[in-house]
Amino acid sequence: MKSSLFTIMGLSVTVAGTAAAQCSSAPIQVRQACKASVDLVNYMTPQLATAIAGGSSTLGQSGALGGFGRFAVSIRGTAVINGGIPNVADKGFNLNDTPQLYAVDFRPVPGAGVDAALGLYKGLNLGATHIGAVDLIISALYLPDVAGEGGDFSIKAKDGNLKLGYGVRVGLLDETIVTPGLYVSYLQRDLPTVSLVGSSSGSAGSVGGTLALNDFSVKTTAIRLVAAKNLLIFGVQAGIGQDTYSSSANIAATVSGQSASGKASMSMTRTNLFVGATINLLVFKLVAEAGQVSGGSMGTLTNRFDKPADGPRTYLSGGLRIAF
Questions:
Q1: Which of 71, 84, 93, 150 sits at 20 to 30 Å (Cα–Cα) from 303?
Q2: What predicted TM-score, i.e. pTM, was given to this entire model?
Q3: How confident is the model at residue 21 (pLDDT cuts 50, 70, 90)?
Q4: Where are the alpha helices (DSSP H) in the chain?
């Protein structure tokens, strides 16, 4: 398959290992296509999910908003800066059971979205501070339809290109002149459900074919504990959290006129550590974050890659926040 196809797959696909077993009765080249697709999407799982989840639940927030009617909106862009996409564009699918060795091209894996928070409850008054304030969080992610040149690949949303996420934030301690703000949050961000189709022309020792991932969905759940402090014009924050990724798809492979299909699903849990800084410009805040995810495990891959699939991934986030 062409490089552009697997770039799109790398940014948009996360499924897992059960499809290979369901293709086991197919001809060998079709089985290899199933195995290659499963390995590719497993390889990209931690990267795509990290680009979706990012660090803090809403950029630049030092605690809960402080009561009903208060709100904040942030525009966020995130990139996994040590991302890698397997270079499998020209190898096609083997005619035997020999595993392929794929080189990995380093490139950023991006994600973007809009997050809004609405204050629901001010919390309990402890004199100089409050505890137990509650905010509602809504997240929006947009994924456009994509059609490759020459018809070698396409991505099409099934139920609309916009996907909303939701969550809640609880203020453990409001920020004061001498103490930082402290909060815990839960947020689910998902990709729109899509269908992806790609084709390959093959190469020496392998054959081309077509892969389809139908009704593909990926979900991320992020739990965060964050401490933050504003210092006049500047602010700082640090957080720790746990990310859980899950995904599913119907997979189909056609090689040399032979076809097979199956279902695929996966899940993975990782630890997320991050720090951030803000510049306060009256109503606006400019925010930057840096973080790393690590840990978790995945099933054994059939093929080999020259960079580990489950290694630590570092990400950077930046954006703009407005609060009232």
A1: 150
A2: 0.85
A3: low
A4: 3-12, 18-22, 28-53
